[in-house]
Amino acid sequence: MLQQILREMYIDPELLAELNDEQKHILFYKMREEQLRRWHEREARAAREEAEGVQPPKSNSKHIQWLHGIDGEVWVWIMGEAPGDKPYEQISEELIAERARQQAQKEAEELWRQKEAEITKKFRDAMANEKARILAEKWKVEMEDRKAAKILEERIHEEFKRKEEEERKKGEMQIRLQEEQRAKELYWTLKQAQQQSQASEKEEREWEEQLRRSKAADEERRWKAQRARDEYRRHSLRAIQKGTVAGLSNMFQEIGLYNEQEAKLNNHHSSPTPSLSLFYRTWERPLRPVSREIIIRWFKEEQLPRRAGFERNTKSIAPWFHGIISREEAEDLLSNMTEGAFLVRVSEKIWGYTLSYRQQHGFKHFLVDASGDFYSFLGVDPNRHATLTDLIDFHKEEIITVSGGELLQKPCGQRDNPPDYHMLFE
């Protein structure tokens, strides 16, 4: 179909009315390209013939000069978009009404031809029957009788002619009414077809919009994944430089040395005390925290030996450390502080902690996994830190996420007395 339209440079108006605006623009653009292609081909042929010395016939020689727009391209007029043009909806409405009127008129003319033939035949037969009846009677052959018969015949003829005219007018009125009714029926039929076409176009646009959103969501997920990979590499390189990635810290090495020394001392005593390594073997924790009592036991038996919550190389509890408090309580503590303020609280969701951070508008909460022999953010930071203090100090210099730019600045201390962590250290 497209090749035929481009070959003939013509599209049927009924077919054009079925196209949406985007299809019309594409079709007109292709027709313009075909016109330019033909023109370039004709100009090239003319130049080639001129170079070969072939003179084109003067009588039929024609030249085309294209009108250019402001942009330097060939100017193209698209119906309905130029200033002063009727809107497409109005043009479509008028075309539908005109098609309905022409169809109804055509049908009315056919009905009228049939009606006129019926009327003519009816009165022709009636006239013949009446003449036969008159001739069948016994008329006198006298002149007066013939004259009277002639007058009677003319009067009868006029009477039939009058009735025929009345019947004709009546038939015309009926045909006219049928024509108007048919025009209305055709109009609504075409209107419904147009509405169905518009509804189909609307569904297609909605589907395209849904597809566009889906593609945008996929693109956003790919972008986030790429950003996460870049962030992972950045943190990993930075952590390697600082010497804080993976492995056990010096503190854990010291604990191991302490256990070895303790074992040696126990060999020289009659009643040895259990070592930390033996203590770890006897403690079996559930998969997830199930109560505050279990969390307190976990902290005392696993985290205190790692000096979780203490400042580096001191016996003082860090000002940012808090006990088992809720998200709401943490946000209440941070509510009157500036952006960058933070605290670390013991989590009730995982074996670990939650870092609560004060943004310019609102708060953020990051889970810290402490179930193994390292400390690391869940799903955000790939770095593994030997101690909880190492994690905090690392993110005083390095942001937590690239998108958020969270940098730990001011610790949020205690507000009540006794502090909310007192049960952990009793």
Low-confidence parts lasting 5 or more residues at pLDDT below 50? 244-281
Largest sheet: 6 strands, mixed
Assign the structural class, choosing from mainly alpha, mainly beta, alpha/beta, alpha+beta, or little secondary structure. Answer: alpha/beta
Separation, N- and C-terminal Cα atoms: 88 Å
Oligomer: single chain
Integer-rounded radius of gyration: 50 Å
In total, how many beta strands?
Answer: 6
Morphology call: elongated
Name the helicity range.
Answer: 55-70%
Overall pLDDT score: 78
Into how many domains do the coordinates divide? 3
Helical run tally = 10
Order of helices and strands: HHHHHHHHEHEEEEHE
Q: Percent of residues in beta strands?
A: 5-15%
Organism: Monodelphis domestica
Protein name: SH2 domain containing 4B
Coiled coil: 149-210
GO cellular component, one term: cytoplasm
Describe, in plain words, how this protein is organized in 3D.
This protein has 426 residues and is an alpha/beta fold. It folds into three domains: 1-85; 88-240; 291-424, SH2 domain (SHC Adaptor Protein). The protein has ten helices and six strands; from the N terminus they run H-H-H-H-H-H-H-H-E-H-E-E-E-E-H-E. Strands 1, 2, 3, 4, 5 and 6 form a six-stranded mixed beta sheet that branches. Helix 4 (88-136) packs antiparallel against helix 5 (143-242). The two termini are 88 Å apart.
